[in-house]
Design brief:
alpha+beta, Neuraminidase, Collagenase (Catalytic Domain), 6-stranded mixed β-sheet, 4-stranded antiparallel β-sheet, disordered N terminus
Length: 479
């Protein structure tokens, strides 16, 4: 995004005017100075000056000016407020302007702001946002992002620091920031800057920013939800003890479809089933809304790598192959277990290497995992380059579980592959309490995760520490 950076010289000049000097002489009052001593407008212009425009917002003015190299006003934007410390002209000609919130009694200091406005070229305020109260206040600068959002920095009121305590040194491992809090008055509330470390390892610019048009990719998903478990014992359809139950042992859920809608509804005779919701109707162990919530989290995660995540078609509600949920009510999957073999044998012939197969089911607590992806070699089913992800439906839908499992399939690696620090976690741990508003080192994808996820690999195995590992995938598409 092409932005015209603001001039902040006015701040420095203003500060210098108030700085005492040991040899200061009495100053002539402004109204008694000769007119030719006050120089305004263009003072100096040489061939060394860069051509172009200069954008600035005088501290004691409500107007922002754009001038050319001759000092002529090219455009101006009026406002009702004095400026903050940053102003930008956006690509569409609109002005993004930091401003001072009037009557801000809670925060004081250089660089104070408190509000942001977006002003159209004709001077109309199209959008404004105030971030100033007794708890926080915008200061100094903002950064307009490519997606239209605005990143800002702000002061926050801090905790009480007693005068007799040692200074608090916030110094995380490999951190860039160090902030020492000192307070010399008993019982005062310390004014602190909140330091948020989003990642402790080196990051590069997001791939979309480096290559805006050439590197957009799409991760396609095929999603199935297993239906609620049922007991394949048949059901009594006519209350006649001489008539055998209907559907015993046929691996199908049998019921009387009274209203002929193709679904089991409340009050319809049927084989016994586990009513998960419960509503006396048999349907999926979860619903599409649950999946779409996790999909939105996955989109947020992988957009960092310029990867869009989409579901092909609709979320399917299906019977578990071979009624595998019948015995315990859980999917007792895992490497080469009978349940996994049954599922993979049924669905692998329908799968392709360019689509991740995702299955939502009640996973057995004894598995020791709330989700897993078929990365390792299977001895019972030849998966080829197809990948399957199994996700437990008992997890909070706001967890990043789907995004986490997509990471396994894209990188062809485990959570912590042989202690190699490529993926401390692919993204958020699959079944942790990290929700969308949780700020921690898992929120940002690491550079190696970005690299591995976008690598096209030639073979699935071996899985070992790089450089021997075959990282990457064959799934990402350009459309």
């Amino acid at each position: 995004m092409a932005l015209i950076r603001p001039l902040l010289i006015a701040c420095f000049v203003l500060a210098c005017q108030h700085a005492p000097h040991a040899l200061a002489q009495p100053q002539t009052p402004p109204d008694e100075r000769p007119a030719d001593d006050v120089k305004r407008g263009l003072i100096l212009s040489t061939e060394a000056a860069a051509t172009g425009y200069t954008l600035f917002a005088p501290l004691n003015s409500t107007t922002t000016y754009l001038i050319d190299i001759r000092g002529e006003t090219v455009h101006s934007w009026p406002s009702e407020y004095n400026p903050g410390q940053a102003v930008y002209v956006l690509d569409d000609g609109r002005l993004l302007r930091c401003e001072r919130q009037p009557r801000n009694r809670h925060f004081h200091g250089g660089g104070i702001g408190g509000r942001v406005e977006r002003i159209s070229p004709d001077g109309k305020v199209e959008w404004e946002f105030v971030y100033a109260n007794e708890e926080h206040c915008l200061h100094h600068d903002v950064e307009p992002l490519r997606n239209g959002n605005i990143l800002m920095i702000a002061w926050e009121t801090g905790r009480v620091v007693r005068y007799d305590q040692a200074p608090v040194d916030i110094d995380p491992v490999r951190s860039i920031f160090r902030h020492i809090i000192r307070n010399s008055c008993r019982g005062c509330r310390a004014l602190t800057i909140k330091v948020v470390v989003v990642g402790l390892q080196k990051h590069s610019a997001p791939v979309c920013d480096r290559y805006p048009s050439a590197n957009k990719r799409v991760q396609h998903l095929h999603v199935r939800i297993f239906r609620e478990p049922f007991a394949d014992v048949g059901y009594d359809h006519d209350s006649n003890p001489m008539t055998p139950p209907i559907g015993t042992g046929n691996d199908l859920f049998d019921y009387t479809d009274t209203n002929m809608n193709g679904e089991h509804d409340s009050g319809e005779l049927s084989e016994p089933f586990t009513d998960v919701f419960p509503d006396s109707r048999r349907h999926g162990v979860t619903d599409s809304a649950y999946v779409l919530t996790q999909l939105s989290r996955a989109k947020t995660v992988w957009s960092q790598c310029c990867i869009s995540v989409v579901i092909d078609g609709v979320v399917e509600i299906v019977e578990s192959p071979g009624n595998i949920l019948n015995d315990t009510g859980y999917y007792e999957g895992g490497l080469d277990t009978p349940e996994e073999v049954t599922v993979l044998s049924a669905y692998n012939p329908l799968a392709t290497p360019t689509v991740l197969e995702v299955i939502y089911a009640p996973l057995d607590p004894g598995m020791g995992a709330n989700a897993y992806t078929t990365i390792g070699m299977r001895s019972m089913v030849a998966l080829g380059d197809n990948y399957f992800a199994f996700i437990n439906i008992s997890l909070d839908p706001n967890y990043f579980t789907l995004g986490h499992e997509i990471g396994h399939a894209l990188t062809n690696t485990f959570d912590s592959s042989y202690d190699y620090p490529n993926l401390p976690y692919v993204v958020y741990p699959a079944s942790s309490t990290y929700l969308g508003n949780s700020v921690n080192q898992y929120r940002r994808l690491l550079h190696h995760t970005e690299t591995y996820s976008r690598t096209v690999r030639s073979a699935r195995f071996p899985i070992a520490p790089p450089p021997a590992a075959t990282t990457g995938n064959l799934m990402l598409q350009t459309s």
